[in-house]
Design a protein that fits this description.
The protein is built from nine helices and 14 strands. The chain has 327 residues and is an alpha+beta fold. The protein has one domain: Oxidoreductase, molybdopterin-binding domain (Sulfite Oxidase, Chain A, domain 2), CATH 3.90.420. The strands form three sheets. Strands 5, 6, 9, 10, 11, 13 and 14 form a seven-stranded mixed beta sheet that branches. It has a five-stranded mixed beta sheet with strand order 4-3-12-7-8. The chain starts with 17 loop residues before the first helix and ends in a 15-residue tail after the last helix.
């Protein structure tokens, strides 16, 4: 059998013509390959950014706000197991069950621009990776208490919410900080349900935002936040019920008048603006006297302000007898 071998310099005879190449690109584009390529580029860029974020963690722990809870049988209450804390999550954008990890994985978190608007001298936007260069990251162990009467103890990494206020420099007339999450119905299918007031919106008073406990989490368990826990940044206000801790924040707006938050707009009698933890003020459909640790299923007595009274009591002087303060 005769096998013809092209000489090395004859390769140029086999180069595809420009016209054929361009026609091929057009065909592939029409078949959707261009979109696939674009998605691959975005996924690659996202992976690189996440890898860069990995290098930021772990960070030094700040033990000032650590609260020791004792169990009669086992002594000090331990950190919630990482697997449990990252696989048992409320995130209504991706579904109403706790198992939303797979759905949330579709969210692309790089690039991720956060806008600063409202009553500030100059509105601006900044990428999350640039924002983290302007702050000092630390780890804080906080207890998270859900309004559904379950809880977990979590080592969050991040920075004080006061740093956001310092960066934005709001005007004195600004009384509230409004935070919103992303709106992308293609990635978050539940956002196609127009009976919810999307995007998720949460509000704090400026004084609450300035409180030393208020925290912006960018990591957890010594790693960047996974999507289901609110990547790339979320709010943590441990003296309030968990639904106040908005996930995947895309904007901080400073305003004079208070808008309604997400759950307040849906059902204000059950989920109000303040949402401070109080064991004596029950949810209309269940008791708030105790909460279940999701890692061990053990029950604990719920404490006023989730045990953080010494840091936040001053915020609510004269309001303590109002049941609305705890909804």
């Amino acid at each position: 059998m005769f096998i013809k071998k092209n000489k090395e310099w004859d390769i140029y005879k086999n180069i595809t013509s420009e016209k054929t190449f361009l026609n091929r690109r057009t065909i592939l584009k029409n078949m959707g390959f261009a979109a696939i390529s674009s998605n691959l580029i975005m996924q690659t860029a996202n992976a690189v950014s996440i890898q860069n974020r990995d290098s930021l963690y772990p960070v030094e722990e700040n033990t000032k706000y650590f609260i020791q809870e004792k169990d009669i049988k086992d002594g000090i209450r331990k950190l919630t197991d990482e697997y449990k804390a990252t696989n048992y999550n409320n995130y209504y954008e991706f579904g109403t069950t706790k198992n939303i990890k797979r759905s949330a994985s579709k969210l692309v978190t790089s690039p991720w621009t956060i806008s600063f608007t409202g009553m500030i001298d100059k509105e601006f936007g900044i990428d999350i990776d640039d924002l983290t260069k302007k702050v000092e990251l630390e780890e804080r162990v906080y207890k998270l208490r859900c309004v559904e009467a379950w809880s977990m103890v979590v080592p969050w990494s991040g920075f004080s919410l006061k740093d956001i206020i310092k960066i934005a420099q709001p005007k004195p007339e600004a009384k509230y900080l409004v935070m919103k999450t992303f709106f992308d119905p293609d990635k978050a299918r539940s956002q196609r349900q127009d009976w919810y007031p999307w995007p998720y919106t949460e509000v704090l008073t400026i004084e609450e935002a300035k409180n030393e406990l208020s925290f912006i989490a960018t990591g957890v368990y010594g790693k960047p936040l996974p999507n289901q826990n609110g990547s790339p940044l979320r709010l943590i206000v441990p003296w309030k019920y968990g639904f106040k801790s908005i996930k995947s924040i895309v904007s901080f707006e400073f305003v004079a008048d208070r808008p309604k938050s997400f759950w307040e707009a849906i059902q204000p009698k059950e989920y109000g603006f303040w949402a401070n933890v109080n064991p004596k003020v029950d949810h209309p459909r269940w008791s708030q006297a105790r909460d279940k640790d999701i890692g061990t299923n053990k029950m604990y007595d719920t404490k006023i302000y989730n045990g953080y009274k010494q840091w936040v009591n001053y915020l609510y002087k004269g309001m303590e007898n109002s049941s609305n303060l705890y909804r």
